[in-house]
Protein 1
Amino acid sequence: MIFVCPGRPARPGQTSVFSEGEIPMYKLLVVDDEENIRRLVRKYAEFEGHAVDEAKDGMEAIAMCRDNRYDLLVVDIMMPELDGFSACREIRKTSDVPIILLSARGEEYDRINGFEIGVDDYVVKPFSPKELMLRIDAIMKRVSPSEDAEKEVLRARGVTADVSARKVFIDGEAVNMTPKEYDLLFYLMRNKNIALSREKIVTGVWGWDYYGDYRTLDTHIKLLRKSLGEYSKYIVTLRGVGYRFDENE
């Protein structure tokens, strides 16, 4: 559900970017110890019509998430007091708010660690603020439910996916997954027994305007297979092509 909040108050000596009665599109929290990064993201986000709060470290971000409801968080990994990974892990205990991680490093370990925590996207510094805005828009389109969405349940032997409730059951037992694992499994099961290229999967799950690479998909496939346990065999790797969900494997 999209949270509608009043426009943020202006900073001392500054006129509010929202006119009286105007409602911002989304309320964002930008968490980074570098003030110039926070200002850059704020500038572009407010231009797009979003309300923006700032936090300079992980501890401050956790406190602000307790007192406020945000539509999306943009969180840097390397910060004093408490790093981004630890902050996201703590926030995930009580909230499924979408999270984009920022990092000066692009190592696979950082991406896997972030996705295991349950972040939705990963952006390497230096980044294009315009691209970041597109990623925010793409995520919010995916997580905002359609008002006329009908109940959809997908089934394979041993695996049941309740799409409308965003729940997955393995042999009747509920399994916790990250938000992106849910999206990926739903897409694969909807296209059961069809050979899907990496490009097609990325477009279907992340959106046509996704600016990442296929390594992100491969990382999420690894995590999804781990969550499926013995039924990980249903996700078949098609070398040089992509993947296929096949319960006959």
Protein 2
Amino acid sequence: MTTLLRKSLAAGLVVAAMLLSGCQTPGPGLGTLAVQLVDTPAPGIKELNVKINRIQVKIDESWVTVGPIDQTVNLLDYRRVPYDFGEITYGAGERSGVRLIIYEDPTVVDEDGTHVVDLVRKQTTADITHWIFVSGRWTLIVDFNVAESLIKHGPGDYSLDPVIRGGMYNTHGQAEGVVKLAGSPGVVPEAAEIKAVYLSGGQAPADSVINTSSVDTNR
């Protein structure tokens, strides 16, 4: 769920269902799987520029490339807004496996300048479950964890051993409104908790809390 609340302004709420494996059975036919890249930042790092040769997902016994090859990204640009890496249309089903391939040494920018980073592994594979549903579009979020991947050995001396994690995401709808205190319509609370509850359908049991967000409205 993504929320942005400001004093005296309407609040926007995007409800995203992070569904557990087995909550929906894929049907025959084709569906779309999109891949987005996000970053978990590291303290003191201003940029980490990486040329990603390709991201692949495992479909049955084959590795399928998603999106164009050789995409150069500054990972720290995508701490809050995901990078749209690409998408594939394929047969419906539940699979597991994501592979990240980097051939060239990245560069890092810190308070001392720009430095070439020694790449420890060119290929990183993670056991991330992903789904393709018939006539649907789901997104696989791949988190490139810079905080764990980037190792500092000394001033200007870095190595990169990529660590990736991920999960499935789907936007089911959105709601808009104003956050108010009960009985005090002119007062905006300092904090709010918003829950998304699944009501009906085949994707989760009824009354399941599928996402919760606690928000500081003073920001």
Protein 3
Amino acid sequence: MNKGRPTYQELKKRLAIAEPIVEALKHLEVDAVVGKEKLTFLLLKEVGEELQHSEAGFRAMFELPGVGMVQADTPAFRFTKVNRTFYEMLGYSPEELMNKTFISLTYLRDRQRAMKEFARVLRGKTDSWSHEKRCVRKDGSVVWVAVSGTALRDDTGQVVRVMAMVTDLTARKQAEQILRDKALLKKGKPMRPRKPARNPRFKKR
């Protein structure tokens, strides 16, 4: 049997492994599966294996619904592939995102931390990372996301590409803010009026 082409049964088995992980991500039930870091490893490992075995299998894994998936080159971390969930999340077309990088879409005040994470990956300090940050949509509005990524290295240990899962956390963040505001009201403390978050340097074109 040609190991480079998984059978239908093998692909179906891999998809079966990934589906409960995706469902947990959609409902933010990370602890119900295996924990955040393990979650990243399992799903991205499945996608990475399909990338090596077959293009068709890779597409099937990459386009799993409910969670954003991206692939980017190095060292610029420019997007080379994005799935529908991700580009709809940020309001760009897939073609527009091919001219963007992880950093360029990151909210200005969150960029330094993101750059430190990427530097650790390039230096071989880690093969994976997970963090929450804000991204800027095409219209300038801000969306909170959870990013969990992994590096794919060649035989010499050099990073050739990175893959990441991106989950929209905006609704959860808004709910948390409402709870904080209610707590302040109970304590008799006034709430400061809030304007919709926008990137400090964003200019609408």
